[in-house]
Amino acid sequence: MGRRPVTVRLARWSAEHPWRAIALWVVFVAVCFVGGNAAGLNEATDDDQAIGEMGRAQLIVDSGGFHEPATENVLITPLAGKLDPAAAKAAADDATARLRQVDGVASVGAPMPSRDGNAVLVPITMSGDPETAADRVQPLRDTTAKVQEAHPALRVEQVGGPSIGKALDDTLGKDFKRAELLSLPVTLAILIIAFGALIAAGVPVLLALSSVAAAMGLSTLASHLVPATDTTASVILLIGMAVGVDYSLFYVRREREERAKGRSGLDAVEIAAETSGHAVVVSGTAVIISMAGLLLAQDAIFSSLAVGSILVVAVAVIGSLTVLPALLAKLGRWVDRPRVPLLWRLTAPRVGRHGQPARPRFWPAVLKPALRAPMATLVVSVGLLLALAAPALGMKLKFPGMEDVPRTTAAMQAYDRLTAAFPSNGTSHTVAVRAPADQADRVHAALTGLAGRAATDPLFAPAEGDGPKIKVSEDRRVSVLEVATPYASRTDEASRSLHELRQDLVPAALNGIPGVEYAVGGGVAASEDYADHIWAKLPLVAAFVLALTFLVMAWTFRSVVVALTSILLNLLSAGAAYGLLVLVFQGDWAEGLLGFTSMDAIVTWLPMFLFVVLFGLSMDYHVFVVSRIREGIRQGMSNKDAVAYGITSSAGVVTSAAIVMVGVFSIFATLSTIDFKQLGIGLAAAILLDATIIRAVVLPSLMTLLGDANWWAPRFLRGRAATPPAEPPAPAPELVGAR
């Protein structure tokens, strides 16, 4: 008898020494979590995140060593009609006097009227660290509110980066808190419905949460090698809950199925380890490969997400192979307690003749078209998915701008009034110049001339007050000019103004200055440059993921055809998700339904992130389903019988896992910001399509059509067939018909 697989040996040791395995897991999680907190988080800097010309501009600005204090504004406008100059002056003087007494205010500038005379702006400079200004802005807001009370005939409001930041933190903080509070009960509720027993439902959640805790600590340690970003923890939670619940669900379902056949607890755990445990290792490897592809993007954000995701998937795989068998062995039949009466009768494993699980009725009905008319079913289903994917050809990528932030807060409503009255306070481009110190005067003259030419162009907004403000570093080597545009950051006009600066105005102004180096950055530049970066890197990342996944699948299933069809089906699933995303978010028909304002584009970072996440998570289902099909093949079934057996025996657990993911991802679609809405809808829709149309229609029709060719492989790839269990699963003649 050959050496048993490592998954079985690990499971047997854990099942025979459950308390040791559980204790080791608890210690591992605690050490990771505590060690990570002790090491502290190393966050990515602007230098780490520099992309394209925008990144070069930021690096030039940073090299100037400018002190950039946080700034705020008090905006005074009429409640209706025209502004009364005398009343506005009285309110501005009152605001100036009060704010100068507030702790945290470094200075208050002179009141500045708008060009149309219908608004007055009082600029405020805050003291202290600008990074913490949002946490210290409330006393200023309180003072402005008192000014408003003293001048009820006017609208007096505060607006600026810190106050907007605080308002958004409050709004988004409530959003995320609600999402976190909802995700756990939603997951538990779905698992209770899937298992019909509370303990069985709690085990996957317990493993997922402990995996997330361990990965959080490990990612903090890893941040000293690959700097972390502020989105890393959220992605670890998202991916960790998804794969942790999936892997446990696959394992627990198979263990319960084997016990229902009459196997002992230890035998049931071993069979689950040999089948579902093996599938967990393969699917985990596929997810890790997908996430590793993000490292090729050479982007601090994606590198951070890749490291966090790889760690949480690896920990979830280890947990499912070690502590999960220990828990199942220790719980025994208690895993099915306490039972939820009605749900238990619906979900409990049923045993039919010959000790085999009773056949479900729903999935055989779904499978009939794929098994009886595979070519027609394949053509129709693939045609529908390709039609759904077609809109992706028109995908446009942009960063969300200030115009995409929800207008439910007073701060954002004030921002709209500010940019309407003072356009130069809205969207702007940053012209960053570095030259030898002895050329500082020439650079200053060139930038002054540039600002003058821009002021005559309708694509740009004229400078407010005394004219263009050019910042010069202490060593006189770095000069910075802000050139405003009156258009919102995502508009075509804002994009044209950027290109006019980069291709015409800036080169013409600085031409001939010895040793000059320049770049144009800002919000519009960040959006354009990052979109170019994504389009350039996406083919490389996709090629890496596809190639390595193909090799893993070919080696695992000893079949080139299975590996190739796996890749094609996942590409079809990802394409359909892209198309659906474009269909929903690049138009305006779903705005009222989903509560968003269309930005006529997809958030820049989403396509690459969605590709690797969907490719990895989709492979979970694919590996699990094809593993069950291969079981049937190795035990003597015909290809059609094996397809029927594999789909029907795995449909319940795949559906349950998909519903958990769809439920959790859908919660993200309820958040206020457009990027999380797109992420939630994209992930939920893709998983739903993958677990239904792809796995229940396209896969069985394709594998039925290919027949024995599914398992073709070159001689060097063919492995020795695994020894089948003593009791082969019964075929499903009602599905395949008489032969």
From TrEMBL:
InterPro entries: MMPL_dom (IPR004869), Mycobact_MmpL (IPR050545). It is found in: Cell membrane. The keyword Transmembrane helix applies. Keywords: Cell membrane, Membrane, Transmembrane, Transmembrane helix. It is a multi-pass membrane protein. The chain crosses the membrane at residues 21-39, 181-199, 206-226, 232-250, 271-295, 301-329, 371-393, 534-553, 560-585, 605-624, 645-669, 681-706. Gene3D superfamilies: Multidrug efflux transporter AcrB transmembrane domain (1.20.1640.10). This is Putative drug exporter of the RND superfamily. The lineage of its organism: Bacteria, Bacillati, Actinomycetota, Actinomycetes, Micromonosporales. It comes from Micromonospora chaiyaphumensis. Pfam families: MMPL. Residues 50-353, 406-715 form the Membrane transport protein MMPL domain. The keyword Transferase does not apply. One of its GO terms (cellular component) is plasma membrane.
